[in-house]
Amino acid sequence: xxxxxxxxxxTKEKIDQLVKNNKILVFMKGAKLMPQCGFSNNVVQxxxxxxxxxETIDVLADPEIRQGIKEYSNWPTIxxxxxxxxxxxxxxIMIEMYQNGELQQMVEVALxx
Length: 113
Description:
This protein is α+β, with helices and mostly antiparallel strands. It has helices at about 10-20, 40-50, 65-75, 90-100, 100-110; strands at about 25-30, 30, 35, 55-60, 80-85, 85-90. The protein has one domain (about 10-110): Glutaredoxin (3-Layer(aba) Sandwich), CATH 3.40.30. It has 5 helices and 6 strands. It is globular, with a radius of gyration of 14 Å.
């Protein structure tokens, strides 16, 4: 726990609410229409291809969330994808799951619930 500052309870609560209230949520650099990094863009493209509704949070606009989300998920990089309240992974994991069909199933289950 030596690196950086621990996230505040407020930030944790904010992330909790975001994760709970959105079936598919992407914490990314930039916005859905203007991704600011290639990895974030990959994830947006995958969900666009699937044609499913998803929300994005621009971590560049919110330094507390940018830092907090890494601690929240225990995952060091952005983007981060949450489906049905669970952390799924980043860009590489999304691509792999998309290619093997797991992501489509997971998304269908999430949107049906």
